[in-house]
Amino acid sequence: MQTRPKPANTWREERNALARARLAKALPAVFPAPVLVHAHARPLVPPQPRLAVESYWRHHPVRADRLARALAALSPVPDGWSWRLASAPGDGRARSFRAPPTPFREATHPAGPGTCCLCGQPVYRFGWHRDLWGAGVNRRARWHGCCVAAWKVWNAPAGQAKLLGRLQRRRCPVTGGRLPRDREVDHRVPLHIVWRAKRGEPWAELLRHWGFPNLQAVDAAAHRRKTGAEATARAALATRDTAA
Question: pTM of the predicted model, to two decimals?
Answer without folding.
Answer: 0.90
